[in-house]
Amino acid sequence: MMLQDLIDNFADWESLVRIWPLLAQGLWVTVKLALVALPLGMAAGLLVGLSCALGGRAVRIGLLCWIDLFRAFPVLVLLVLIYYGLPFLGFTLPAFAATVLALVLNNSGYYGEIFRAGLASIPHGQREAAAALGLSPLRAMLLVVLPQALRAVIAPLASNSLELVKATSIAAMVALPELLRSARVAQEQTYNPTPLMAAAVLYFVLLWPFAHAVARLERRMLKASGVGR
Q: Which residues form a coiled coil (predicted)?
């Protein structure tokens, strides 16, 4: 009897069939958020990292403050400020754009620190050798230093990207019908937790291959560095 009650409450097939279109719509919104925010956040982080490496002392100090600010600022609070606060300044963003902006700003700090650390780890002699070949500082950074740095930071980049995809659930705060929000609406229609359980399974199916790939990358990086031998 207890098993049947568990199935009726958390795995009701009839409820799942009825609310599946709503969950599918939410899953698609979650995927779209990730597809838009991830490359924009990574590009913003790369710009921050390159500017730190090429800029003067004042630029580096300002960008380090940027990195610390957005890494310390909760992304949910940032979304609330953007979506509900900007209208008081005369700027109104749709829920999708506000969520993307919050994710990009927050992750520009994380990606920026990853790229900054990766670029700083490359010996300065690489730049000097590139300069001796007649390359400008920017071309030396893009053609010589950055490719080496990318190999060193690919695992943390992938790990942070996984966290960004997870963070798309904050869109529920501004009533954007992503997967979590859709599951909550569906729960109100079915009067049982089946939609939330289905959403959890969908998140797992969506993210587990990514998480598995990140773990493999991290193990390879540790093995290549000789840690754990």
A: none
Res. 99: pLDDT tops 70: yes
SS (H, E, C) the chain: CHHHHHHHHHCCHHHHHHHHHHHHHHHHHHHHHHHHHHHHHHHHHHHHHHHHHHCCHHHHHHHHHHHHHHHHCCHHHHHHHHHHHHHHHCCCCCHHHHHHHHHHHHHHHHHHHHHHHHHHCCCHHHHHHHHHCCCCHHHHHHHHHHHHHHHHHHHHHHHHHHHHHHHHHHHHHHCCCCHHHHHHHHHHHHCCCHHHHHHHHHHHHHHHHHHHHHHHHHHHHHHHHCCCC
Looking at residue 6, its pLDDT comes to 55
The fold of the 36-153 domain, in CATH, is MetI-like fold (1.10.3720)
How many Å apart are CA 182 and CA 165, to the nearest integer? 17
Q: Name the nearest CA neighbour of 201 among 36, 16, 76.
A: 16
Whose CA is closest to 120, among 110, 112, 109, 108? 112
In this predicted structure, the answer to whether residue 132 has a pLDDT above a threshold of 90 is no
Looking at the chain, the whole-number percentage of residues with pLDDT higher than 70 is 92
